[in-house]
Design brief:
2 domains, mainly alpha, single chain, 10% strand, Alpha-lytic protease prodomain-like, Alpha-Beta Plaits, 311 residues
């Protein structure tokens, strides 16, 4: 994910959420709708989410230090995980609490016109944010499905924004449904039902994001297709007989660590082996620009060596 593209999607989501949160709070004051209150808290939480994502990107750009020799690329994974576990979970818990309270102690929705006007405006703003995130994601996901993109993306910002915006749009529809049913039937319980549905939705999104960002945080490697390309690039060097084993790990969204044991020819000199290693590294970087750190261990070729292992 390019820095420019990711930042554009985050800023669009931040601007939309701030505007939506303000409008929903106004609607809540005039209507007393718990769905409106839950949605306003959701939007405020989303605004905090974007703030954390921006902070994570900024902190990840720090230079490496003796204490952190591989740099701070994982800061982006960490803050995305905080977004999933803390803010989304808090939003879900608050919505569920408000919804249950409203079901147990329902009251009529006041000034429903305010609620409808704000919800329609919020849907328009959130749709703009969602459209921006989709446009930025389409430039990167290629032929992958949306599920594959969210599961395999190494830069966490766009998957987070995509799921946030999708949850926000669905939540707005649920809020609109709850308010509409409460007005039509005169039963405030519907407002509570809509709020509970929003809470359950947020909990599901939090779970998906937590699982995916946790996987990145503890260390994900290259996907099978990338590993095949790495092996092919290494073995294309004349001095490399074959790859004995390979290990990879993303230490940041755009930083791939590669460690491999390569078999070299028995009669090669040390100088030839060194040149071969340099050539192999250059070919891997040409194939995968994110391969920033490559460590190759030469070993004498042995016919008993098995095919390269990657796990």
């Amino acid at each position: 994910m390019s820095a420019e593209g990711g930042t554009k999607a985050i800023i669009a989501a931040l601007a939309a959420n701030l505007g939506i949160a303000a409008s929903k709070l106004v609607a809540f004051v005039f209507t007393g709708s718990s769905s409106m209150l839950a949605e306003s808290i959701h939007s405020l939480a989303d605004s905090g989410n974007q703030g954390l994502l921006i902070l994570g990107r900024k902190r990840s750009e720090r230079d490496r230090t003796p204490e952190h020799p591989f740099g701070y690329g994982r800061e982006r994974f960490f803050y995305a995980f905080v977004v999933a576990v803390v803010l989304f979970t808090v939003g879900a818990a608050f919505s569920l609490y408000e919804g249950v309270e409203k079901v147990l102690h329902p009251h009529h929705v006041e000034s429903p016109a305010w609620a409808f006007a704000v919800l329609i405006a919020a849907i328009a703003m959130e749709s703009f944010s969602f459209r921006t995130a989709i446009k930025e994601s389409n430039a990167l996901r290629a032929d992958k499905s949306w599920v594959q993109f969210i599961r395999r993306a190494k830069a966490p910002e766009l998957p987070v924004v995509l799921l946030e915006d999708a949850a926000a749009l669905i939540g707005l529809v649920l809020a609109l449904f709850g308010v509409t049913m409460a007005v039509v039937t005169g039963d405030g319980v519907w407002d509570g039902i809509g709020t509970i549905a929003i809470g359950l939705l947020l909990a599901c999104v939090a779970t998906v994001l937590a699982i995916e960002t946790k996987s990145l945080l503890i260390g994900e490697g290259a996907d099978p297709d990338q590993e095949k390309r790495i092996v092919a690039a290494l073995e294309s060097a004349e001095e490399v007989d074959h790859v004995i084993h390979l290990r990879t790990e993303y230490i940041g969204p755009e930083e791939l660590l590669i460690a491999a044991k390569i078999a070299v020819h028995h009669d090669d000199t040390a100088a030839q082996v060194a040149r071969g290693i340099d050539a192999a590294e250059a070919r891997v970087r040409a194939e995968l620009p994110e391969a920033r750190l490559i460590y190759l261990e030469p070993a004498l070729a042995d016919k008993k060596d098995e095919a390269p292992t990657t796990h």
